[in-house]
Each structure stands twice: as structure tokens, then as C-alpha cells.
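Q: what sequence does this backbone want?
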């Protein structure tokens, strides 16, 4: 399923045109999903759910339920996690912050990831959980050389989200795949995301898109040239654009802008990326930036109805804001009539003052006249 921009039907020949979104645009194929936890991530989340014992040294509390089945041994799992030392609550790793999901092949994990792997093996796609891991299944009695703040015999806390897993290439990590295999795996995830998008399952669709992008990581793209790079971008960029469409529907505008910006870093004149970023910026009130994006999109697609409509909506919004500001400033800086009470009291004061002054002047005049006689 390609992007949902009905107005762009003539511009993008490689997209499926029978799937229409709310804005008439065709939906593309997807990318990196970030379902950041509600908490800010500086400290472990507060979880009220029951604690499930997965192992003598590994316990789990579910933060968000997942769907489907659990991964089997040798499944390639894609996940985000944050890690803390339990005793000090020092955070030493955060893949959300790095914006790159981690790949974990169950049964082939590193020794220090054993506890994390036990937890992941019990999770379903989309599930988010807090794991309590004993030091024996973490960095052991020596601690971590890579993370100096992880001392010897340190129990750990993991906040984990299982984005999804792949069992098609059992036990085969991305680094062991050929270029064609990685592109094929990414394309398969993209198509699964598109199918979920057509069912309005936006979160699930974004998870598939993120898995697709995981196969198209920066380290991989850096090595590609010529036709292979073109093949990879033909999968990767539509994922980002479809991701932006999902995020706009979910009103997560900042993230939608980030997805579009990734595409524009590769293709600065991509009309869909410009359109979606402009739409997201307009929703955030960033009218100048939104106008720049939309006008540039219209330059390359002058007859596109979706772009023209969005520019018209932006102009109407700006006019409405201007009228409201005009009324506000008129009230702030216009002439202020004096309250009736103030006017009345002012007149009374003048009458009394002049009466007193006239009386005083009369007395002085009489005294002066008397002395002169």
C-alpha cells in the first residue's frame, strides 16, 4: 500500500491509488515508529500492574498490552528500551533517545543481555513492560566497562517495547543478510504495515514500518551506491511518508515533521514530504514554515488539489487570527470613555471649588476696601 494522497494520483505513479485517506492523499510505505512512554524517560516508569515471575532473577510488569503471539527461539526481535541501575536509578542506555531500535536474536544474545532476552521472549508485538533483572543476568559481578556507572553486581531495570519480530530468516541477523535479503525483508514489513493502515490500525502499522526501517539503518545505507541505494530508498522513503501520515492522524505533529524531514534530507523536492510537513507545521501554528513548505510543494505540483486546499485553509486561518488580533488591539489601545460617576464627581468638584474661590475673593476685597476708607 502506498501513500494516501488522492490529490497526488498523477504525480506518483508507483503508489496504489484505490486507497484514500482523510485528506485525499495516497498513503506510502513506512518507517520508524516511536511510541515514547508517557513518562519523560529520565527515571523508571511507575507501574501498578501485577509482577510476573519469568525466572528466578527476572520479573515483568506489563505497561501496555501487545497483540498476536510471542516470539520463538531464534526469532529476530526489534525493540526499544531504557536501562537503569536499580539501586541508584542511574539511566545508562536509551535507544529511544538514539532513535534506532535494537535487534536481538533470541538464543544468540550477548551474556549481559540474557535477562533482557528472557523478558522479550515473553512479550507480544507492541507490548511495553518494565523488567526487573538480577545482576547474574545483567553485567555480572564485574559490572560494565562500556557503562562505568554500572557497578559490580548491579541489579537492573529495563523499560522495553517489543516493536515486532521476524521468524522468516530464523536466527539470521541483519548484518548476516545480503543487500537483497535486507531490502526484501524491509519491503515485506512495509506491505504488512500498509495492510494494517488500510484497516485503520495505525499503531500496529507504525510498528511494521519501524521494523522495515530497522533493516534500512544508517550504517547499511551508507554502504549502498547506484541501483542498490535506489532500491533501498524506494522502500525506505515511502515508509517515512506513510509514518508521517499515521502520526498526523494521531495528532503527533512533531514526530510527523521529523519523518518528513528525513525524506527531504534525501530528496529536497519530494512533494509529499513537503505537503505533510507543511500540514503538520500548520497544525502546530508554525504558519510561516508551513506556508514555505506548501508553496514549494505547489511549485512542483501546481495543479494538485490537496496542496491548493491546504494553502487556502492556511490563508483563511491567518485571516481569522488577524481579525481576532485586530479586535484585541482595538480594545487595548482605543480611547477609553470616562465612567459616568467620574464625570459627575468632577463637575461637582469644579462647582464647589469656584464657589469657595469666589467667597474667599469677596472677603479679601471687602477687607481691602474697608482699610482704604
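A:
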Amino acid at each position: 500500500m502506498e501513500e494516501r494522497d488522492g490529490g497526488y494520483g498523477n504525480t506518483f505513479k508507483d503508489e496504489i491509488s484505490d486507497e484514500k485517506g482523510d485528506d485525499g492523499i495516497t498513503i506510502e510505505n513506512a518507517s520508524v515508529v516511536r511510541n515514547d512512554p508517557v513518562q519523560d524517560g529520565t527515571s523508571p516508569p511507575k507501574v501498578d500492574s501485577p509482577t510476573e515471575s519469568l525466572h528466578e532473577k527476572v520479573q515483568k510488569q506489563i505497561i501496555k498490552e501487545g497483540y498476536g503471539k510471542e516470539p520463538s527461539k531464534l526469532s529476530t526481535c526489534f525493540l526499544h528500551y531504557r536501562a537503569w541501575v536499580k539501586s541508584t536509578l542511574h539511566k545508562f542506555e536509551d535507544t529511544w533517545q538514539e532513535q534506532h531500535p535494537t535487534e536481538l536474536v533470541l538464543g544468540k544474545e550477548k551474556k549481559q543481555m540474557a535477562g533482557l532476552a528472557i523478558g522479550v521472549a515473553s512479550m507480544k508485538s507492541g507490548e511495553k513492560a518494565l523488567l526487573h533483572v538480577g545482576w547474574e543476568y545483567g553485567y555480572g559481578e564485574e559490572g560494565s566497562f562500556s557503562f562505568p556507572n554500572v557497578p559490580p553486581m548491579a541489579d537492573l531495570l529495563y523499560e522495553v517495547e517489543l516493536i515486532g519480530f521476524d521468524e522468516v530468516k530464523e536466527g539470521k541477523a541483519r548484518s548476516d543478510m545480503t543487500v537483497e535479503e535486507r531490502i526484501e525483508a524491509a519491503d515485506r514489513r512495509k506491505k504488512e504495515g500498509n495492510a494494517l493502515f488500510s484497516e485503520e490500525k495505525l499503531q500496529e502499522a507504525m510498528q511494521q514500518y519501524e521494523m522495515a526501517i530497522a533493516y534500512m539503518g544508517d550504517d547499511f545505507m551508507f554502504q549502498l551506491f547506484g541501483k542498490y541505494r535506489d532500491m533501498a530508498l524506494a522502500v525506505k522513503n515511502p515508509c517515512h511518508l506513510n509514518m508521517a501520515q499515521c502520526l498526523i492522524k494521531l495528532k503527533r505533529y512533531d514526530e510527523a515533521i521529523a519523518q518528513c524531514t528525513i525524506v527531504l534530507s534525501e530528496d529536497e523536492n519530494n512533494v509529499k514530504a513537503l505537503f505533510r510537513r507543511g500540514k503538520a507545521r500548520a497544525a502546530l501554528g508554525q504558519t510561516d514554515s508551513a506556508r514555505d513548505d506548501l508553496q514549494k510543494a505547489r511549485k512542483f505540483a501546481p495543479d494538485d488539489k490537496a496542496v491548493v486546499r491546504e494553502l487556502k485553509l492556511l490563508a483563511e486561518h491567518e485571516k481569522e487570527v488577524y481579525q481576532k488580533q485586530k479586535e484585541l488591539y482595538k480594545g487595548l489601545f482605543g480611547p477609553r470613555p470616562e465612567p459616568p460617576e467620574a464625570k459627575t464627581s468632577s463637575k461637582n468638584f469644579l462647582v464647589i471649588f469656584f464657589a469657595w474661590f469666589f467667597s474667599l475673593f469677596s472677603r479679601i476685597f471687602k477687607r481691602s476696601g474697608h482699610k482704604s476708607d
